[in-house]
Amino acid sequence: MVSSLPIFGADVTTNSSALPDAAQERARWSASGAAWDRWSDPMADMADRLNLPLLDACGVMPGERVLDLASGAGEPALSAAKRVGPAGHVIGIDLVPEMLAGAIRRAADFSGKKPDFAIGDMTSLPFPDEHFDRVTCRFGIMFVPDIQSCMAETLRVLNRHGKAAFMVWGPLSDNTLFSELDAAVSDIIGPDPKHSLNPLFRFEEPGSLGSLMTAAGFENVTEESLRPTARVPLDKPFWRASLDMLFAPRLASARDGSRERIEDAVRSHFSGVAVEGVCPLHLHARIIAGEAG
Ligand SMILES: C[S@@+](CC[C@H](N)C(=O)[O-])C[C@H]1O[C@@H](n2cnc3c(N)ncnc32)[C@H](O)[C@@H]1O
User: What Gene Ontology terms describe what this protein does at the molecular function level (predicted)?
Assistant: First the structure.
């Protein structure tokens, strides 16, 4: 389901227990890069189900110059490169080289005009003023402590008709796979003292990121909710990608056998909700977009 509403700078607060810590985020993503690279190709079709609505919300068109913030293993930069075609250009940046390794590997095999990738912090962009038509960011903005600097920098590098679009997660309880994995990991290896999942849901409140964009100077800020339900076969270990990508740093220090016990618990939970061998997986993401004006 997709709904769209305008944001008028409402007085909305973010989830304050979800504020990220810069050093912790850098360590988390450095430790996660290998898993994101490993899963990036098998998950590419699934990733496009979120990439394409994000590119649409941002208005990405053939021939445009696009900056993708927090590209990780290349989402949605590679999809954006397909859309802008040979007359356009995509540059993706990410804070840590370990996450960008997958994007660089995948770009080498890209048929068509290749996107470029560089290490960079989205609060201090290494690009001239008004250099891009579009700025995209999929599941990255929530990990940045200094949102104001990121917004100011995004506005600075966008041209006068430019647009930015950020994808964030809705609440944990609306995202079946994450909530079940979190429950199983916490039951088996104990609660996470760093609460490392919390920043994912920093902008779970409708309007919370949109009001910050409006305050920063974006115009015509809008928000869409995406709430697809995937129907996945129970006989495939569909949870493994998320377990590796989001829980790798926690699992690294877990006792031998913990991983198997977590997988057994997850399999058993999903067996209980499957109908004729198919599990419904609910997902809730939001896209918040704004124009540079
Ligand atoms: C959940 S991953 C998303 C990766 C990719 N966009 C995707 O959707 O698959 C979050 C990414 O944000 C990056 N990141 C975190 N803080 C950042 C910052 N200040 N500047 C640039 N990238 C950052 C991390 O290194 C990580 O690659």
Answer: methyltransferase activity
Would you say 50 and 170 are in contact if contact means Cβ atoms under 8 Å apart?
no
Q: 163 lies in which domain range? A: 2-291
* DSSP output for 212-238: HHHHHT-EEEEEEEE--EEEEETTS-T
pLDDT of residue 12: 58
- pLDDT for the residue numbered 14: 65
User: Which residue's CA is minimally distant from atom 7 of ligand 1?
Assistant: 75
Question: In the numeric block, which tokens belong to residue 57?
Answer: 């919300």
Which value, to the nearest 10 degrees, does the dihedral of the CA atoms of residues 209, 214, 218, 221 take? Answer: 70
What confidence category does residue 17 fall into, taking pLDDT thresholds of 50, 70 and 90?
confident
DSSP output for 62-89: TT-EEEEET-TTTTTHHHHHHHH-TT-E
At 145, list the tokens: 């402590």
Beta-sheet strand order (sheet of 2-6): 2-6, 219-226, 285-291, 158-169, 132-138, 65-69, 89-94, 116-119
**CA-derived radius of gyration, the chain:** 19
Q: Count how many domains the chain has.
A: 1
| CATH code at position 210 | 3.40.50.150
Residues having CB closer than 6 A to ligand 1 are 25, 29, 69-73, 75, 93-96, 99, 121-123, 138-140, 143-144
CA distance 237 to 262: 12
User: Looking at ligand 1, which atom is closest to the CA of residue 40?
Assistant: 9
C-alpha to C-alpha distance for 33 and 97, rounded to whole angstroms: 8
CA angle 182, 283, 260 (to 5 degrees): 35
